[in-house]
Design a protein that fits this description.
311 residues, binds norvaline, 13 helices, four-stranded parallel sheet, five-stranded parallel sheet, alpha/beta
């Protein structure tokens, strides 16, 4: 029995990531076959930030696995405000077989994992969005039949949670990652260093550039995310100005491989980080990504639950 958590992408090894993705594909093919949470055993799904896909996909996914999804509004729970994170972790562990949490500062979820006696899953923090990455990797595999060697260009806010997860998760998958972001919004050198270190073991590579064109040149996958992540609304004006040359539009996508796909974790702001014609166009796979959240998350919950129960 090993208590494992999924707080950042590299909490899985490259082989484990592949195993989870294969399980996700299997669960997608037969959504009602795997019922590890039969009982029903409960999974707590808490959110301190806005959520649509996350609560839908975890709720539906846990139900499909025979479990009981317990949605908790973070504003009511007041974790770390009404009650310490440590105390909340112990209370939650007494009711749930796993804890899924969307919150702000990454240290908060690390503290939760430190005190929980059941697996903790990061459903987005300010630093990482590893469940989104699993969904994206599943989607890319469906379209491209492989991950290793895929040329991946992410344009926009290179310092946000999704970019960080692309760096770590993509490196684990052996992809060639390019981040195209303006100065001031490029990834933390520590994350780039970690991704580079991982890529050296998987055959992938990492490049950070301030040129959107260099970023997507010949890419198999073009990615972006909102310029203004949740909690940064006060910076809206400055960010829109800084990122205006980093829009994923038809001219930029034309620099990628002709069979390139376009991914976006959503919510999307049309006319800002991506144009309507691109997101509604034939190369975009964003609705598949949104659905694949459910399948990928079922797989990571099952993987962690198997480890915790020693099965
Ligand atoms: N970077 C975005 C992702 C939303 C799913 C945010 O944190 O708001």
């Amino acid at each position: 029995m090993t208590l494992r958590h999924f707080l950042a992408d590299d909490d899985l090894t490259s082989a484990e990531q592949a195993e989870v993705l294969a399980l996700g594909a299997e669960m997608k093919a037969e959504p009602f076959k795997h019922r590890p949470f039969e009982g029903p055993r409960s999974v707590a799904i808490l959110s301190d930030k806005p959520t649509l896909r996350t609560q839908l996909s975890f709720h539906a996914g846990v139900a499909e696995m025979g479990g009981n999804p317990m949605l908790v509004d973070g504003r009511l729970a007041g974790i770390g405000v009404r009650e310490s994170i440590a105390d909340s972790a112990k209370v939650l562990s007494g009711h749930a077989a796993a804890i899924v949490w969307r919150t702000g500062a990454h240290e908060r979820i690390e503290k939760m994992a430190e005190h929980a006696t059941v697996p903790v899953v990061n459903a987005l923090t300010d630093s990482f969005h590893p469940c989104q990455l699993l969904a994206d990797l599943l989607t890319i595999t469906e379209r491209k039949d492989r991950l290793a060697g895929i040329r991946f260009g992410y344009v926009g806010d290179g310092a946000n949670n999704v970019a960080n997860s692309y760096l770590l998760g993509g490196a684990l998958a052996g992809m060639h990652l390019r981040i195209g972001a303006p100065e001031g919004y490029q990834p933390d050198p520590a994350i780039v260093a970690r991704a580079t270190e991982i890529a050296a073991t998987t055959g992938g590579s990492v490049l950070v550039t301030d040129s959107p064109t260099e970023c997507v040149d010949g890419a198999d996958v073009v990615a972006t995310d909102t310029w203004v992540s949740m909690g940064l609304e006060a910076e809206n004006e400055a960010r829109v100005a800084a990122f205006s040359a980093y829009q994923v539009n038809a001219a930029l996508v034309a620099k990628a491989d002709r069979d390139a796909i376009v991914v976006h974790c959503l919510p999307a702001y049309r006319g800002k980080e991506i144009t309507t014609d691109v997101i509604e166009g034939p190369q975009a796979v964003v609705w598949d990504e949104a659905e694949n959240r459910r399948h990928a998350q079922k797989a990571i919950l099952t993987f962690l639950d198997r480890a915790a129960r020693g099965s």
